[in-house]
Design goal:
It is globular, with a radius of gyration of 17 Å. The protein is 42% helix and 14% strand. By secondary structure, it is an alpha/beta fold. The two termini are 32 Å apart. Strands 3-2-1-4-6-5-7 form a 7-stranded mixed sheet, sandwiched between helices. The longest helix has 22 residues. It has a single domain, classed as Alpha-Beta Complex (Spore Coat Polysaccharide Biosynthesis Protein SpsA, Chain A), CATH 3.90.550.
């Protein structure tokens, strides 16, 4: 715990057998109270490795996708009493050693969500991010900041932390079961007025680290732009329905 807040780390896993043990070993267990792994019907020994490590594990009988995996992870974390939930990919692309920093920013009360940015400090290229992905990341982030009125350095990191309140209030069931989930969740959080902070984070790119190919990257980018446009139109009162429907009124009801 930090500040009497129960800290849970969730590991959305798919074929992470080669990197799970190394990732788990670097988690600072002196401050982390619970670790939950959801295996998305892996075809390797991820579940067996998790069992050997003593990690609480949920297994999907069929692959539900990256977003579907997170939905299971977040629901389980809330059910098990988490106050702070930190998503860490078990592919060892992000360092678990930053978990205390992420948790401390939320416990401070200044932020409702924290993103570990690979762009701040130049960690992306130094860690081996392909240049086409770096260029796409920067271009999408620029457009997102313009359309969504935010000032984030990166929207696309897979290392992020949330308070219990955020997870309870956001309608995550509306979000995609695929890779678009992260951006939709962040857009919902911004729309709802939650405070988002960032820290600098190095990243590692190597064969066992998860990644999506060029075709899926393009589809992801188009989807991200669609979320931005929907956000902008909804905020301007020109669009109703979809991802953001009724969220503004719900927040008023909660406040008054």
């Amino acid at each position: 715990m930090i500040g009497n807040r129960r800290i849970t780390v969730i590991l959305p896993a798919y074929n992470a057998g080669k990197t799970l043990a190394r990732t788990y070993a670097e988690i600072p267990h002196d401050i982390v109270d619970d670790v939950i792994l959801t295996d998305d019907a892996s075809r390797d020994d991820t579940v067996e490795t998790a069992a050997a490590l003593g990690v609480y594990t949920i297994r999907h009988p069929r692959n539900r996708g990256y977003g579907g995996n997170q939905k299971t992870c977040y629901a389980a974390a809330l059910d098990r009493g988490a106050d702070i939930v930190i998503m860490l990919h078990p592919d060892y692309q992000y360092t678990p050693k930053l978990l205390p920093a992420l948790a401390a920013m939320l416990v401070s009360g200044h932020y409702d969500g924290v993103l570990a940015s690979r762009i701040l400090g130049g960690g992306a290229l130094r860690g081996g991010m392909p240049r086409y992905k770096y260029a796409g990341n920067r271009a999408l982030t620029f457009v997102q900041n313009v359309l969504m009125g935010a000032k984030l350095s990166e929207y696309h990191t897979g290392y992020r932390a949330w308070t219990r309140q955020v997870l309870q209030e956001l309608p995550l069931d509306r979000c995609s079961d695929d890779f678009l989930f992260d951006n939709q969740m962040l857009a919902l959080a911004l729309h709802r007025g939650f405070r988002i902070g960032e820290i600098s984070c190095p990243a590692k790119y190597f064969p066992a680290a998860s990644s999506i190919n060029l075709r899926r990257s393009i589809a992801y980018g188009i989807g991200v732009l669609g979320v931005c446009v929907q956000y902008r139109l909804y905020r301007a009162g020109l669009y109703r329905g979809g991802l953001f429907d009724d969220l503004k009124q719900k927040r008023k009801n909660l406040l008054f």
